[in-house]
Every structure is written in C-alpha cells, then in structure tokens.
Structures
1.
Amino acid sequence: MAEEPQSVFQLPPSSAAGGEGLPEVSPEITTPEPPSSAAVSPGTEEPAGDTKKKIDILLKAVGDTPIMKTKKWAVERTRTIQGLIDFIKKFLKLVASEQLFIYVNQSFAPSPDQEVGTLYECFGSDGKLVLHYCKSQAWG
Amino acid sequence: MEEDEFIGEKTFQRCCAEFIKHSQQIGDSWEWRPSKDCSDGYMCKIHFQIKNEPVMSHPGTSTHGQTCLPMEEAFELPSDDCEVIEAPAASQVIKYEYHVLYSCSYQVPVLYFRASFLDGRPLTLKDIWEGVHEFYKTRLLQGPWDTITQQEHPILGQPFFVLHPCKTNEFMTPVLKNSRKINKNVNYITSWLSIVGPVVGLNLPLSYAKATSQDE
C-alpha cells in the first residue's frame, strides 16, 4: 500500500486462514532450541528475535525475475510460504499462469505450508531471513 | 554458452547418495534400490498418510512443525494435544510410495509415485489430482495431463503416476545458475525434490537445506 521507499515494509495482513490472531508460538518440534521468551536463547546462531511477532525478510530475485522495489519486509512469523508467494506475485503483478518459487539457502524450496518464523529460526542470520524468489512459466 | 542445466546419470547417483546419507541421519527413510543388473537404480520412500484430514486448525498441534519431521512420525504423532482423539479408520490410511528415477531422454530426475489404501486398492488418477496441494491445484487443473500422468515404471514395469519432467529445466536452471555465480554447492536432487515434492504431498524436512551447505 505504502509507496514511499522505506527500509522495512509491513506485509499486509494475511487473508489466508490461520494468518492472524495466532498466539506467538514457535513450532516446538522444528526449532533447534525450545522457544523461550528470554532475550537470548543459548546456542542460537542468530541474535534474539524470539519474542518479536514479526521477522525481517530480505527478498532477492533470481534469474529473469523482476526485482522488487522494496526488498525488506517485516512479516508475521505465522505467515506461510504460500501466503508470501501470493503476496509477491500480486506485488510483481504476475499473471496467474506464472509460478513463483521461494528458496532458502538459495537452493531449497520450503513447502507452501511452511511458516516463515520457522525458516527464520533455521536459516536467519544478522536478524533477518534472506529468501530468493524466482519466476517460472513451468507448471504450477 | 550454458542454457538449460542438465545432470548426467553419474551426478544423479551421487546426489542421490548424498541425499540418502542425510535421510539416514534424520530417519527420513529414503533408500536406494539398485536395478537387477545394478547398473542403475532409484531412490525410494514409503510413507503413510491419513486421507482427507488436513491436520490443521487444532490449537496446540504443531502442524507446521510436521514438515520438519519424517512423514512416518507425522502419522504417529501422539494425539495428546489434539482435540480430535480418535484413531483413523484403516480405510482412511493411504500408503504413498515415491520413487526418484533418472530419465536418460530428458536428462533430469523424474518423480514417480503411487498410492493405495491399506487393503491394496490403488488410488485413481482423479483421487491423486484431488489430493494435490491447493497451492498447485489451479495450475494442475489447467493442464492436468501436462503435469501428472500414468506411466509404466521403467525398472519395475508397474503402473505409477509421474510428474512430467519436460519442464524441469525451466525451474531448475535459474536456481543452479544463481548458485554457480556464488560458488555454492547445490545438491540437484535436494533442490529439485523440494520443488516438485509438495505438489504430490511430499514435503522435505528443512534440515535437507542445511545439509547441502554443510557438504561444501
């Protein structure tokens, strides 16, 4: 919605089920460390972000994919990859037949139901999660 | 002048071996099955799933955490925290079998799969299409035969469903090119399977993504 360049944009509320109003719980099974409300969790590589509801995501384009003007977004932890993809597609005005993939570690596509909060726990560093996105005409 | 990124059969086998190595570390139950003359083979995984139970919207259930677990464990998840405490009827359990083979003609890996109820009744192609993740359904329904077809398994000779490989290079090439730019070691099989798997209900635990970079 906001068009002025800012360093961090807030992702609009997810319209998908489960996106809003969920308690701030990290899936216990997936994170290497148990969720803690303390400022520092022992052993984590990245600085403490456990208590924040939103995480910072940096989006990077791959291949011929259009580059988003705004690359840095604050996203609720419970937003799924599917929700994020839908958002980027709208933002880039992709047509429905174009598929968008998101990667962590520049090589691995998390499944659509994966929550970005979990990805942040596993792959975040320097207080943000870097995600690469790539447009493809291939089957959806 | 590199256009599409293909992989040779040797690379395919090496990537599968690395993939399986990690699978063994996390108990994900992928295994390699050589063909009769052992000249080639394929990767194989079996998992069980409850049909038509999306396992969502139960507070306290770490649904999203399941994607990091081997699929067998997802089936056995204790129902302590679940609101619905009832054992699934046997008729509701589906056995999925996923095979990763190498296609010489396309020079890419191909995902074969089949599904059946516990009494042996196979799922139909229509059941399969209906089971495709909602996220991919629209595209699938636009051209289902372009995407999932039924073919004879090249090694077993039995009918399997196949995710058509003709577009594999289209989505793999940018990923590989990008990682090559930064000299990053990418396991083709891991990347590829992470992309195609979810279309047919196969979700790779996130630890595979980390395993790749640790191999560098």
2.
Amino acid sequence: MIVKLLFFYFYSDEYDVIPVTEPVHNKSPLVVIEHKLGVELWCIPILYQYAYDKLLSWRARDGTEKFLEPGEVCNLCRAVLLVNPECYTVWNIRKECVENGDLTVDEDLKLGELILTKHPKSPETFIHRRWLLQRLLNKSLLSSNDSNHSNSSVESSELLVGVDGISVNFLPTNQNTCSNNHILPKQIDRNLHRTVHHEFDICLRAAEHYACNYNAWSHRIWLIQAAFNSAVQVLLSEFRTTVTWFTQHVSDHCGFHYRQFLLKSLINQSQAVSCKFHVDVNDLLNQEFDKTTDLIGTYPGHEALWYHRKFVLHQIIDEIKTKKDQLRETLSKDNGIDLKRSRVESERQQLLEKELNLVSNKELLSCDKRECELANRYIVWIKRMLSL
Amino acid sequence: MASQMKDVEIPEKALKELLLSKHADYIGAYGTKKDDYEYVMTEYLRMNGIYWGLTAMDLMNQLDRMNKEEVIGFIKQCQHESGGIACSVGHDPHLLCTLSAIQILTLYDAQDAVNTEKVIEWVRSLQQDNGCFYGDKWGEVDTRFSFCAVACLSLLGKLDCINIDKAVEFVVSCMNYDGGFGCRPGSETHAGQVYCCVGMLAITGCLHYIDADLLGWWLCERQLPSGGLNGRPEKLPDVCYSWWVLASLKIIDRLHWIDKDSLIAFILASQDDETGGFADRPGDMVDPFHTLFGLCGLSLLGNKSVKAINPVFCMPEETMQRIGIQLDLL
C-alpha cells in the first residue's frame, strides 16, 4: 500500500525522513505539504525490505514472484531507490523498463532529480542520469540526421546550442568568416534542449546542498563535453554565469576546478574564441587572476583560492610560452629572433618575479597563520617555476 | 588570528596503540547478523565488503577465522552468464565487484572456482575504441574501471588480451596540470582516482608518464596539521586516504615526503577501543572499509605487526609473490 501511495506522491519536488519512530494506528506514514514529501522513519526499513525482496525475487524468477506488472516493477524500484539510491542493480532494472517502453526517460530523470534533493552526491544517481541523457542525445542525433551530413557529436551539439538558451552577449558576431560552417541553427528538439539546460540547474542545486560535490561538478563537465561538444558559446556562457557562484563559495574547490576546466577548454579553442566572439583568452585569464587575488585579500586562509591562483598564473605563463613557440615558427629566418625570444623569456621571468614580490610583501606578512602557510607554499612553487 | 581550516583535532586521550585483536574480533563478527537493516542496505557492495574484511584479516594473520567455503560458494553464485561477477546473489555484474571477487579468490588460491575464461572475455569486451573501459554493459566511463580491468586481468595472467597502449593512452589523457588524475578527461584531480591511475600505469609498466615530483607534491599537500590526509583541497582528513594517497606515493617513490609520525598518530586515533575497527576519523563510527585502509596505511608506514601490503593491488605482498607478480615501481 505504501508503495502505491509513493506513486501518487511522486510529484513532490523534495523529500526527507521525518523522525517518527513509532507508527500511529491508521495514520499514513507519508506526509505531503506543498510538494514536499515526508516519510516517517519507522516505515522505511519495512518499505525497503518489502520492495527490495519482491523486486529481486522477481528478477531471479524464483519463489512466488514470477510475474509483475511493469507499472508495479517501476513502483517497487522507486521505493527502493528513494531509500537507497546506491543500489545500482535497481537502477539497471529502471534502464530495462525504459528500453521496454514501460518508463519514459523524462519520468526517470524526474525520479533522479527528486532523489538528489535528499542524496545530493549519490554517484549511482548521476551515473544513471548520464545513461538517460546519452540515450536522448543519441535519439536526437538519429532523427536530425539528413542525407547531407555525416553522423557526429558536433552535429548534436549544434542542435543544442540554441539561440535562446545562451546569453545574448556570446552569440557569434560574424557567421560567415570562420571555418566552422555549422553555425546556422537547425531543427532544434525543444524538449531535449530544455532537458539539457535544466540539467545545469540540477547540478547547481546538488552543489549547493553538498559542498565540494565531486559528482555534481564532474557531471556538469560531462554535460558540456557530451551534449555540447565543448562548444565555445556554451563555455563562454557558463564562464559568465558561474562567476557569482564561485565568489560566494570560496572554499569549494570543485567550483574553482570547473572554472579551470572552462578556461582550459577556451584556451584550447582560442582561435575560435577570438575569431567568432572577439574575446581574447588572455583577457579572460587576467580578469580571472585579478578576481582571485581580490578574493584572497577579502577571505584569507582559503586553500581553494590559492590553488586557483596557481592554476591561472600557470596558464598565463603557458600562454607566454605558446607565444614564444609561435614566434620561433614564424620568424625562423629573421635575425631579430633572438631578441624577440629573449624578450618573451624575460616577460615570463618578470611576471613570476613580480608575483613573488607581491605575495612576499602582502600575504606572507598576514597575521593569519594559515594564510602565511598558503602563501609560503605558493612562493615555493613560483621559485620552482623560476628555476625551470 | 587564524582562519577556520577544515581539519580535526586529535583529543589528548586518543588511542596510541594498535588494537589488533579487537579489530580481528570486529571483522570476524561482521556480517553474522544477516538480517540487520544496515547489512541489507549495503548489499550493493557485499563483494567489495568481503574483500575488505578478508584482506584485513589476512594482514592480521587471522584469515583462517573466516569461512572460506562459504565465501567461495557465494562468489560462484555471483558469476553471470556473461562472465562478469555481481556484488551479491541476484545483482548485476560490474567491474568493481568482479575485481573484488578475483582478489578474494586469489587470496584463497581458488581462482578456478569461477569460469576465469569468461571473466577475461567479459572484461576484455568492456574496453572501448579510445582505450577506456565501461564499468558494465550500460556504458559508464571512469578511470577506476581502467584500474579494475588491468588489475583483474593481471591477477588472472591475461593482461595482454586488451589493447594496453590504448588503455594507457586513455588514462594519460586524464592527467591534469597538477600531475594528478580525475575520473574522465578534464575532471578534477581526486586522490582515489590518482591511486587508480597510478596503479594502472604501474601494472602496465608505464609509470614514466607520471611527473613524480609534481604529483608527489600534490599528494603530500593532502596532509593536514592533524596528521591525517584528505583527498582534495579543503576536505576533511579521512583514514581511507591514508591508503589512496600513501599507496600512490609509495608507487612513485615519494613516501618519504609525508610526515609519518603524525599520520600514524591520526590513524591510531581513529580506532574504536570498544567495538574494534577503524573509523574515517577520530570519534566516528567504524566500518570494515576504513578498518582495512587503516591497517594498510600502517603497513605502508612500516608497522611490523601487520603483514606487508602491496601498494598497487592492495593485497598482501606474500600473495603477490605466491602468484608471481612483480612490478617495477619508480
């Protein structure tokens, strides 16, 4: 009966356990107030054991449960997963239900979304979401495929980079001059579009509920790679929209790593970034560096900030090295090359030394013991870079 | 004035001695109450749990207290037609539990209790064109699975049945600028993933891809003032990272970069003298997972009252010698 009731209360957007340890006669253990589902503690082991045993018995085709209606299978799975989302076999049963048409991808995404409100870092829930989303992406790819274009994930990503989903500032400004000919919007599957963009919200909510949520952030990265093929528009949009988050979560190394991933992906496509969007990655790096050092000044003693500072500086140095390598290639017969090369070398040197002095004169003298330790570590790293 | 730092404080009265017989009693009794709700809830990791318990017992020279026949009989029931092995009876096969199963059978010198040909074929079938491994037929990619696959095949003596070059290429593509590794290309460096990737490269003889100084640096920055190790910046210390981080350091020959004494103190303080076993940190509830890795950490740090542990396979060195696996570490 509880299992059936759970079905009706499925359209909640959040759930949790109510610490009632003894059942009250004739009173339902399920409470729903304004789309929030509460389940009384006492009934959970009973519910779980019942649903779990029935499901596995059916799967093994032994004992009394040789046949179950598909709807009942889905209900039992839901009951098990709401209590214990790490039970990967039950997620697999849901996958089979989707493949049989007994369950839609959307319904399953909804269940996962509900589960994440209580279990925001559940690895199996995110793993299952990737299977569902990949299924949607593959289906969309097949249906959009017309005779002129070959199958490729670039195609599906272009479907998703819809005009309305991305901040207006990052629309391509010149559609004709660049090599990528797939800019013009094709038939966009609106549902898929909405689903994928909603996935970003889900990741963010999970990241809010559990600090340093590796699974939520690595899922977000997967989304960028699998659904958008790391398209520059999306990278730039994400870079812009996540800036507030990381200034409000200065201890969250995952959040910073996400920005590092965005920056690195933009750097790898720096030509497209400057050509199509008239953005210089060096400007992005310098702005990021300034923002980070500001935050360090405001919030001393945060290791995540220092790691981020190190990363950004490392990328800036790397860009200088890239410039140097490019110089070497384009001016191989130029007598002035030695002068230019050494100018680039000294640019790198100067930058590192400037940073060394800055930290030595500022953060190293902080009264915050932890801040001093972090500054010292950073200085050791700079000195190592200088010696290379 | 110091800013708040994520760490724990080891209490004055913290335990300073290794309570081996208490830990042996704890593991010995674990899982005897099969109707316990907690036991039922953790069935999705039963195979892993058995591996943790047995390895811990073997390290303490107490393996014969465990029911070998029952365990082997259980594993036999968990092998599927496909060849893959599940976490428990009636569950689906997965690389994570297949590795645990093979590790257990290797410990017991009973690999032929399962159809190893089919295991090998199933593991081989999970490798993809880019070298990565799926965890099972449903297609999740993670560097943990690269480790599980090569460790499993290595224990079965069939590493050459996969495309080793491609497998290595994929793992190397997951290396980040800090020298560490994440779960997929572009993912954040995580000590657990580092262990899996470093272990994988050790098994395939490709440790030269690693920048040992760079990675060693990141790894020893995991050590906090309490002496404990965390898995990523700004996370709390956890005894299991005494394994993931320490084993990685050992493989790349940078174990001496860690402050041994304070780490030993942290691990010992995480014991529970009433129930036996280790917790993730001092004062918390114990479990077999942290008990194994607490003992493994102490073994790597030179404690002579437990057996030597192999840092790549997380199995007793004597077992590795018995089956003839010897890897070149850095």
3.
Amino acid sequence: AYEHGPYQPHEPGYGLYQPGYSPYDDQIPDPKSRMLAIQNAKAYLLKSSTTSGLNLYDHLANTLTKILDEQPTNAVDIIENISKDVKWAQFQKKMDTLRDEHEILPTFEAAEKRKALFLKTNGEEELEEEIEETPLPNVMETAFYFEQAGIGLSKDESYHIFLALKKLVSVQPIQTCRFWGKILGLDMNYIIAEVQYHEGEKEEEREEEVIEEGEKGMAEVEDEDEEKEKEDEPPKSIYKPQPVIPKEENGTGANKYVYFVCNEPGKPWVKLPPVTPAQIVCARKIKKFFTGRLDAPVVSFPPFPGNEANYLRAQIARISAGTQISPIGFYQLAEVERDDEEEQGGGGDTYEENPDFQPLSVAEMVDSLSTWVHHRQSILKQGRCVWLNPFQNSEEEEENEEEEKVEDLDELQQEIGPPILTPLSEDEGIQNIPAWTAQLSTNLIPQYAVAILQSNLWPGAYAFASGMKFDNIYFGWGHKYSPESHAPALPPPVQAEYPSGPEITETRDPTLEEELAFKAASEEALDAAEEEEEEEDVEDDEEEEDD
Amino acid sequence: MEAASLPAALELVAGGGVGLSPEKRAVLGASLLLLQRDYRFERVWFWGCVQGLRGAYYIAEGLGPDRAAPRSRLYSLNCVEWSLLPPVTKEMVARAERLMGRFQGDPSFEYEYTEINAEDAERLFEDGKEPVIKEEARLVATIEQIDRAVGIIPRGAFVKTPLGAVHENRNFEGLSSTEAKKLSSYFHFTEPVNLKNKTLLEKADLDPSIDFLDSLEHDIPQGSWTVQLEKGGTVVVLRSLLWLGLTFYHVPMTTQYGYIYFGTGEKNLDLPFML
C-alpha cells in the first residue's frame, strides 16, 4: 500500500507517511495509478473545445513543434504570440485554391504522336520477314541526293516521313509507294504519297456508286411530275448543260496512281478521291492557296466542283503529268494487248522498267534536255489523258436533240497529246523561259556530282539523276508559274431569255411624217366614203320618192 | 539570319523544301566570316538565294553599329567570292518594279523596257539615261523591296536607344508560346509607316524603346502571312505569301530567330485572288 503518493524514492515525501496513516489512504493508490493519472490528464487535454473545436493537447503539441522547428530567440517572451499564430494558421487552408495547372501544351501531344511513329507495333513479324521486298521507298536515300542540290526537308522531317510511309504501307495493300512531295498551305501543310494498289484490289468506291444511283432515282421522279403538269406550263428552258465528261478509270490516265495525304508525319493518312476532268479543267482557271484542311471549300470563279481535297488532287494530277520525268531509256513502253476500240491516239500509258538501261553520264544529263523523258501521260484540254467523245454514249437523251448532236460531233475534234516517253526538249517554255533548268549539284567535284533539273513551269518540281538512280519530287505551294498576273475568268454574258423574232419585237412608233401621211390618206378615204354614202343616200331618197 | 547560327537555322526553315547544299553550307561558314573581316561589318546576315534561270544569286547583308541603318548588300554566284551591290535609290526601285519575269542568272544582263509610254521615254532620254536596267540593279532593288515589305523580327529583339540608334536587345529571351502565334508580336524591320497613326490609347501601352516599328497585324491584304508550328510545335515558322519564299523562324523562349529568302525574286501579285 502506498501513502500519499505514490512517492518515488527520490521524492521528498518518500518514507514520510507510514502505510495506513496518509491522507489519501482511502483512494485507490494502485500500482497503475500514476499511469491512470497521466491518462486522465491527457484525456482532459484532448477534450475538444465547444467553441472552436480545437483541443489543448494538439495546440500545445503544434506550438512546441513550431518552436522547436523555428527556434526563435527569446521564445518565452513571445510564447503567447506563437500560440496565437498557431491558432491562426489553423484557418489557412494548406493548399492555395488557385493552383497553376500543369499546362498540357499541344507540343506534348505532337511529341506523343511523333514518338508513336518510332514504336514497333505489337505482333510484328520477325526481322527476317521484314527485309523482304517492300514497297516502301528509301526516302533517306532520295533525300540525300536532293540535298546535294540544296533541295529537301530537314533530316528529322525526312525520317519522320519515312516512318509514316512505313505505317501506310503496312496498313494498305500497296504495290508501289513513293514520296511525292510536300505542298505548303496556310494553316497546315500536306505531305503526299503516291501509291499503286496491288492488281485486283477493289478500292472503296461503292459509296460513290450508291450516291450516283440515288441521284438518278431523283431525276426520274422529277420527270414524272413534269409529265403530269402538261396543261399550263411555263416555257421550258432550252438550256442544255455541257455533257459531263466521265472521269478516267482508276488505274489509267490521270487516275493511274492513288494519292494519300497527311498534315504531319504521325497524323493518319487520308486517301484523296479520284480526279474528274471537270475538276482539272476548272483547276486550270483558278489559283488558290491551300488551307491545309481537306474539307475546306474552294471559293472561286468559275466555281470549283469540289472541296479542297478535290482541288489538291487536281493540282497533283497536273503537276505529275507535267513534271514527272526520268532519264531516257530507264522506262520502255510495255506491250499491252489492246482490245478496246476506243483507244484513239495517246499510245497507252503503261511503261515498265527497261532491264537494259545504260545510264548516261551526269554531264550529258545536264547538257541537253533530250536525255530526259516524261513518263506520265500529259493531260489533254478535255481534262483526261485519253480523249473521249462525250456524245458517243448518250443514247438516253431525248429524240429532239438528235439533229444538234450531229452538229456537235462535227465540231468536237479529237484531242491528241504528246505520247508517253517524249523527251523534254519538246517541252515548250513560256515567253523566253525554257521549261526546265538543268544544273550539276556541284562544280567543284564533278566526278560525284548529281544532275538536277528544276521546272520553271511548276516552280517547286525537281528531278535528280545519278547513275542508275533517279527520282522526282515536289516542294512548293502547288501552283503553275505564269509571268502575267492571274486574270480570273469573267462571268459569261447574260443569256437571252427568249429568241428575238417578229412576234415579240415591239414595232417602231411611227414618226411625225408618217403620221401626217397616214392622216392625210385616211382623210381621203373618209371623204371618198362620205361621197359614196351621200350618193347612196341620194339614191335611197330617190327610191323612196319614187314610191 | 545571323551567319553564326546559320547551320541550326537552316534546319529549322527546311520545311519549305528549299535550302542549301552541304557544299554551300560548308563554304558559307568561312566566307561570311571573311566578309566580316574585309568589310568591317559588325554583323553579317545571310539573306538568302534568288533563283535565276541559268544560275542563282546568294545574298549576304552586312550591318554596322546602327542596325537600322541602310545595309550593305553583297551577292555571289558560288558563295565563295562576293561582290558589293550598288546602294539602292528610289528610282532604281521604281524602275525595277515594272520588270516582270524571272531573273536571268547573269549579273550583267540588261533588261530593255518594252512597255513604256511616250512620256516616260522622253523623261528618261532627258535625264540622259537609257531605258535599260541591269540585272544587278534589279537584284538590289528586289532585295530592298523584300526587306522593306517582309523583313521581320520578333518584338523585343531590338531596342532603340534615346539617341536613335538601334541595337540588339541583350535581355531578349524569346517570345512565349502564346505570343509567338500572334502576328502582333512581329515587326517589320524598316521605317515604320503606321506607327504615328495609332491612337493615343494604343500608344500609351507601347514601350518606346521596343515598340518603335510597325507590327504585322495590319498588313494588307489580311492573311498575307501564314503562321505555323513545325517540328511538333517547337518552332514557329512564318511564311510570307506576298513574296513567296520568305521564311521566318523563331524558337519560342529562346533567342533563335531569323528570316531567309529562297525564291525566284518575284512578287506574288495574284495574292488577293489566291486567298
């Protein structure tokens, strides 16, 4: 039993009180009472205040922690202030409501896309299979040769394009692929790949066919309505629209290759629709910058039948037809059986590599332009590479127009363009500017120089040749060069609403002399008539008198 | 662009597809330095290349202590030997403006006037000058036109001292990404034309040491500049549509900027139809 205590041996009350006589003997002085006293004291300290919700225990702990952390001088003198500060700090939120959001810059997203190009996709074939013949062109090699002339993109960009082409080749069933070039635009640029599908691959044209059928159905319905209203009709317009020249089949002529574009390497490739002759004819008359968005409208006069994707495709077709060249002898005409009777002029457009090609020296390639040939068919005025008479298949037209059909047939003459593989020396320049400028890449080391041709008609089109290798490329804004300013087409003259003829022409008002003459003549007639009447009256009177 | 930063700069403007061959790049590093030594320029800028039919002209500009003073211009056919071009006069510019068509590539070629009316011919004969203009004169007049119309710098890159001289701003740290996309952050580096027409309210916000030039915002026609982010958004590239071939680049938040011209030296008069 402990008295008054429990007193520890070192405490002054130790041993003073004998058991049974201390004033606290009636309390419970068990061995754990010290602990209990501590617990009670702590419980009291932990009691939350009813007004502020704080408790003394935490507050003292915080205050002491703060003092020990900061170790201010003369802490005992400012203890009340410290205590007040700690209490005040309770009301400050630990984090500011205004936080700087980590900016997700668009550059980061772009970097993600570019990084994705470099990742190997899952489930890819073994390395050995990849090294087989692939349609992927060696973009870096071509870039190297063009770089010798100062043409080309930075190596980074070329490599990105290389990888983007690889992605394209792995996704689409492609037989040949080529980096065609880059066309600059206002908001974004276009990177263009020229592609040929495997033979026998049907492309997704079914959507377009469905749309055409739908339109025909509509036209039929309209005709029926018109027949019903044959009673009071306004005069039918005699406007006959120009016959629509059908586009060339995919795989021939201007649609020989399929083009894919993307804005930046890393972005998905989009296929451009095939080009129609109407689009090419219109594209020759307008000159607009590309915005970089394929669905942007092309606002122009004459109105362009399509949006920017079509305009881009038309320009690509024109540039390709005009500037895709190769050293003479590299390609030779392929022998193709021609069953169609419609093959008029333009001797086909199939060419194949000549296995016996002997490259000329680079100096010869630069000296004269007859060492280069066009290997793409040129586009005729009609907008096609192979001329087509638009009136041949028009059997569904009304019978009234047969006479006029015959007349038109006589007027339309077949257009023939230069055959494939004509040398460049036949190219016409503009005014006194030759169509091409030929240079060596370097004059200092002619042994390893590369022959470079720049087009003056299509600024931005380049071609190089060195030994067995050659290639074409385009870097530019996509427009033809013209020394005169672009003069947009004027609107056509106002059409006559009706044919002029005597029944609707106003008669001329009579002049004064004519009127007087007429008056005089009518007076004479009147006098003559009055005389006759008088005679008749006299006769009548006489007759009456007789009776 | 600064001769010292030429290699890096050429990488950044290569988006247009035209640049310099490795041979030219290698020789320019040396020959521009020699230019600086021979002509005692403080700065040498490689201005660009004008493509002629038979050859190309490579142009360099030398600047003295006042960066806004008229610059000396030199041309070379091979980037090794440089010749000084005559200084430009207004009359030269007026005559050259009437010439259309490509440069020939031969500096001594003489253009003959074919379309001048009787009054001009008389005036010219009275002055004792013949109605021909040499390609050199046309070249320097074209360079002057291009510099005046589309030679641009970022805002804050140059400061004007109270005495009127213009120096590079050593405190220029580059435009921020948001600023770099706005046309108002770029100035024409030539005598300002529109500055005095600004209202007092606008002028109050301007800093006279930095905003002493015209910005691109009010260029006519609107939209004659394309602003693009290239290389994944790390470089801002401005291309002029009035003079096709002028490319300006700037890496935001760094001091790298400059402009260069690779083109045929012809003004794009069809611009209003093409926009």
4.
Amino acid sequence: MLSRAIGSTSRLALTPAVAYPCSARLSTATVASKLRSSIHHPPPPKQATPIQTPLFLSLTEPFKRGKGDPPPDGNVVVLDPTVFNEPVRRDILHLCTVHYLDSLRQGSANTKTRGEVRGSGIKIRPQKGSGRARLGDGQSPMLVGGGIAFGPKPRDFSTKLPRKVIQMGMRVALSVKMKENLLGVMSSLLWPCGRTKHLVHRIEALGLRKTLFITGEETPHVGLDRAIRNIPSVHLMAADKVNVYHILKHQRLVLDIKAVEYFERTLKKDTPLVPLSKLASI
Amino acid sequence: MATRIRTTRVTLANLSPAQGSQHNPKRVGRGQGSGYGGTAGRGANGQKSRSGAGIKPGFEGGQTPITKLFPKRGFINQNARTWAPVNLDRIQYWIEQGRLTSSPENPITARELLMSGCIHDVHDGIKILGDGAEHFKDPIYVIASRASKSAIDAIESKGGKVVCQFYNPLALRDCVKGRTDRVAAAPTRREDITWYTNYRNRGYISPATLKSLGDLPFVEERWKLLATQLGAWKKQEFDVQKK
C-alpha cells in the first residue's frame, strides 16, 4: 500500500544486499509522517477478508541492461498476491483453454446435401415392377454418389465464457507459474543489436529455453521481436494479447516490469493488503 | 492425510474440468448398448414416430380443446392501474425497526418503501391503506400515488402529512431510481386531473392541500403552478347562448 502511495513506478523496493525489503527510501521521519497523514483508511469491509502479504521476487538478469535500469542484484519486485498468489484451480484453467481453442477453430468443414448434389430430379426407376426397392432421384443419401444426410456445414465453434472467469484464469495461470518458480521479471525487454545468434547465446546463458516473454509495451521492442522470431520454443508477446493457453503452453514465463504493472492494473482485486512498512516488523 | 499435494507441474496435458460439471449428451440411434438404439426412443410406428411429426400444441386429436370449450368473457382495461398496497401497521413496524425514517426534508416515497423492503414491487404506484391504524403512532410525511380515506385520517390525526402525487411510468421510475434531472409530467387525463385537484384525496395540485402543507421543504413550486393551471376548470362555465 505504501509503495502505491508514492507512485506506481516504484515497482522495485531498493534494498541492500539482503533480499528482504526494509523501506530504506522511506526512513526519514518527515516523509513517513506526511505519508501517514495522507493515507486513506477505507471503512471496514462487511465481509471478513483475509489480509494478504505481498510477494517478493528477485529480478532476473535482463538481456541487455538499459540506461535507467536498476541492477538486478539486491533488487526485488513487489507482486500483488491477489494476482500472483491465487489458489490453483485447474478446472478454471481448463475452461479458459478450451474456450480459447474453440475460438481458433476454422469451422469450414462442408458437405453437400441431397439438394446440393448435382443431378436431375428424374425418378430413377418405376415405382412398381422392378422387384427392387422404390427410389426417387439419384441424389438420395441412400445411394452411392448421393448427398450426405446431416453432414457438417460451416459453423462457428466459438463459445462464450464470462469475463470474470477469463480474468480469474489469467490470475490462476500467473500464480501457477509463480508457485512453480517458473516466473521471472526483467527490468526491461530490449535487444538493441538485433542479432538472433547472439540472442540465442544469451538465452542459453540465462537458462531461459522454452520461455514466453511478455512485454507491457504496446508494441514489443523491434530488435527483440525480429531476433526472437526464428528461435524455436521462445516467443515474445504483448501483455494485452496474452492468453491462459499461451502461459500454460510455455514452460517458463518472463515478464517486463510494465507487464507486471499491466496485469496488476487489470486483474487485481480490492482486498486489503499489509502495507510494506508494516512487513519489516513481522 | 487430508489433501494430496501435487508435485507435477500444471501443463496443458493435465487439465481437466471440475468433477460433475460436464455431462455427455444423449445420442439416440447408435446401437443397442446405449439403450437408445433401434427405434431411438420413439416406440413402434404411429404418427409420433415419423420424421417431421409435429402435432400442433393444444390439439387434442379432434376433441374440442380446453382452450375452445369455454366462452370468451369481458375485456381488459388498458388504462387500468395496479396500485401496490401498503398498510399503516406495516409502515409503523418498519419505523420501529429503524428501516424507514421520515422527515419533512426526506418524506417517505416509493423509493424509500422499495429500498427498505416494505414494498417488493411498485407496480403503477403506491397506495397507502389504513389497515392496523390502531397500531399507528408516529407522525410521518408521505408522498404516494393514492391513499385511502381512513389512512389519511389516521396519519393526519397523529400530526403527519399525506400528499398524493401523480406518477406516470417514467416519473415513477425516476422516483424509484432517485433521478432528479427530469421534471415529472403533470396529469393529462380528465379523470386524473379531477382526482388530483381534489382536497378529499389530498391531491398535490389541490389548492386546499397546498395551503394545509404550508411551506414544508418537500412541496415544489411547480405544484402551485399546476394547481392554478389545472384547477382552472373549477371556475369555468360554458357560455350560455342568449336567445
């Protein structure tokens, strides 16, 4: 809560070598008292909700350190537990995945009915006298070369899923990666030199094979986008285009700081959190 | 142990729907083992076993159907209004529980009655009825669509005020939703105008009602204007032709 009062850009709690946040930036008494008076205490909730503590995740080494980027050693990202610490719900993940795959279906299977098969309507043989079954035109589904009865027709296979279920699916998927220690946060996703070969070496060095990189920028960095395109099992996506399916398909997930902010802005819930300053005393 | 902690990763390969959330649809005509093979649940021969066998709903095989046995009767009055009744003892109970409060600044209207649960649906308006007037104690300020004579007497004997205001469907919706940007329409039908300009009904555009209310906060300036405009019929006469 306190870090929010300062501004959303303070995603990182700058700490000394210990990976444990103590509000070093807020140690001055005047700053603390100003903040204390400006903190708005919301009225107590009508339903008892558990007060959760934020999660802390150490930064991963970026591909290429940008100029304003903080050093990854000794820096920790504060994550919202309502987004990254949801209980695991495999059935919700199943619903979201099936919904996404349904939407991808082309639905273009088509067959001709007896009305669409080319042929005349003449009666093939007389009603009586031939000793065989009675038949009308030559396109009946009973006959070889006739139409198909109840065959597939082009249709829309997409299904509807409540918006809140999809949002919950995203929260569960991000939490699952966090719980399995397969989530990383880089300060920024850049690759200025643009050489795929060198990017492959860097990815191997960081141990980030089979990773989905999610950036919070509207369009991902051009150099990184082009270089990463030809690397198998590694993909780069913008945060607003990401799906539960993509998150589960890849083994690892690496987010941008901006992507973390995007997910928290769109997915977080309004439950009370323990403010950072109180955590140091716990 | 109570729960088994899964140590396998959650991947696309081990997702499944919640137990009991999905059910396979019935597919008829697919073999004896399913229980719906052969005649596929249609029985043997007969009209109903044929394709396209849609018998008109309500058809009774030729016997006069129940919808035709009895004669039509009467008509439906399109101008009829259904009032949502609320008795005085119920209002008293709600006030004692603290679910309803009334003051000259905030009188009891359809909105308060609905939100407090005294009324479950406002229909075409609220009518205050006088059942249980012996339990009624507190002075209240009410604006309803209608009020019975005994209710008016009971409320005024305790020092409260009743006003009956005309609400058309839009005005009633605005009252219930708490919208104040629109002006509630005046009555246009002769029956409504004669009713609401009558002091016996405590109509809101009756000059005697407005005089008895005095300058209470909920009285609007517009009511006084409407009282003069719509009450003009009381003083009018037809021109008598002089022979």
